[in-house]
Amino acid sequence: MSADAGEVFDLGYRGYEGQRAGRWSRRDAIWRDGIRASLGLGRGVGGKVAPWLLLGLVLIPMVVLVVVAAFVGPATDPNDFELPSYADYHGWAMVPLGLFAAVVAPLLICPDRRDGVLTLYAARPITPTDYIGARWAAFLTVALGAVWLPEAVLFVWNVLDARSPGTFLVHNWDVVPRILLAGALLASVLATLGLLVATFATRRAYATVAMLAVLFIGSALGGIAEDDFSGGVADAVSLVSLPQTLDDAVHWIFGDEGDRPVPGGVSFAFLVGLTIVLAAWLVRRAKRLLRG
Amino acid sequence: MALLRARELTKTYGSLRALDRVSFEIDEGITGLLGSNGAGKSTSLKLFLGLIEPDGGSAEVLGEDPRRSPEYRARVGYAPEHDCLPRDVSAAEFLAYMARISGLPATAARLRASDVLRHVGLFEERYRSMGTYSTGMKQRVKLAQALVHDPLVAFLDEPTAGLDPLGRREMLELIRRVGGEFGISIVISTHLMGDVERACDSVVVLDAGRLLRTGRVSGFTEETETLELELVEGADQVAAELRRRGLAPRLDGRRLLLEDVSGHEYDVVRDAVVDVGALLYRLAPARHSLADVFAGEAKGDDSPDTARETSG
What we know:
The complex is a heterodimer.
Chain A: H1 23-39, H2 45-72, H3 86-114, H4 117-122, H5 128-161, H6 165-172, H7 175-198, H8 204-228, H9 232-238, H10 242-253, H11 264-291
Helix pairs in contact in A: 1-3, 1-5, 2-3, 2-5, 3-5, 3-7, 3-8, 3-10, 5-6, 5-7, 5-11, 7-8, 7-10, 7-11, 8-9, 10-11
Chain B: E1 4-13, E2 16-26, E3 30-34, H1 41-49, E4 56-61, E5 76-79, H2 91-101, H3 106-119, H4 135-147, E6 153-157, H5 165-180, E7 185-190, H6 193-199, E8 202-207, E9 210-216, H7 217-222, E10 226-233, H8 235-244, E11 250-252, E12 255-259, H9 263-276, E13 279-286, H10 290-298, H11 305-310
Parallel strand pairs in B: 3-7, 3-8, 5-6, 6-7
Antiparallel strand pairs in B: 1-2, 1-4, 8-9, 10-12, 10-13, 11-12
């Protein structure tokens, strides 16, 4: 007997008999969701504007500079157009990237908290550390992409523009690990701080303002310490100016220190320590939010 | 083996005893956790999920301590009482995501998400963002996300909260279907007796952090079955005739109440009414509601408000 074309089958309920994946697969799901949220994928046009605008501000100036350099040709005179150094471009990228951390990091935490979704995460087979770790990794992934890509463009251009790309590579291979390390430092400081600040706010706007306040107030304090005081105490206080400290550490990584009140190595060690402390605090916050 | 077991379970918040040495077992099927606000229902659910630590005693799910490992939560579902759905995501995407976090592979997660949304009646609306859903639809998504990973048991905290009478009836029917056809055990917490009577097989009654009673819902109501006769006239004569025939009717105006009657006594009542020639207006089993059961019980209790509050 053949079934009529219009016949409706009620399949009834079917349980799930298949394989159940392990813990890494669950973390991977949260990580993917975090990346989609960071980039506004699956959200409306409004959700895409801020992340893509800020990511564009990190990448596009470098592309424009490289295109200009291609037309202008190599510099022969000090007044000629010259491409920025790797370290200097980090100084520029820090501004849109800081804004990106202020605006986008809250997207990964605040809506979950505001809409009560954290309760559902808590009732799933994951721990608070799984949740916050995967969220952190997601934001870090996007931030790393944003900070490494323009530096990679600059490096590839420098290789192609060299008289002998092979020789250039042999002499300048050490730039690659420096780019990776500087980007990783910048991205992990901003990701950890941005997410930690976001765990204290239920509304995204508050988290954004708070993050900007942390960056600006630190900057202002650091500036006051440098201008009006001197000595070891002033140098220690000036470390809280994150943009300045990051800039110092990045220049130190590229071996381009110049004249700075605090040695770049100290700034670097301070930032690594700070990130570890902030990360531990972030895990504690996640435990409170998911178990509270 | 019991599905859930509470042993001397105790939880305090500051000076408040949310649960005070409560012991009970819950078997497969649909169980109601009944009690007024502050009775300890939500606290019990959270302890069974391992979301909070008990201050004493233990809560076991499938013979395991839920705090030991998060793994067991792959086979447990939970729908909280409050809002828990992201506004700017579609139900299909959200459910697939929740299934993946519970360990289903991506393709299976998407299939199950659609399938479960069809069962709760949201197949057409599954690609709309959930911010546009009505309260009834949100309650259905909350139920669906608790079932999407095919758990052995799902905890539903006040699943009928905020629903109109029709929505409430549909939700309870859906819960009965899940418990029956889907074979997923359900524990619902509610302060509504009606919900328990309509949907549950068993009930655990909590009051101010203590266990009041536990047992089968049908047992609760059957054991006190009463036959009610309402007569236009001749109630006195019928009462006298029934006493002569060995029954013990209670006269209440034109009404006669007979406690604990069974099949044979119905015949006796019929014959008595015919012999006296009384005018019968109504003859019906006055099957006791759970509210009456607890009203009777609370008389001897030191907190007489219990039954009245829980009957709301």
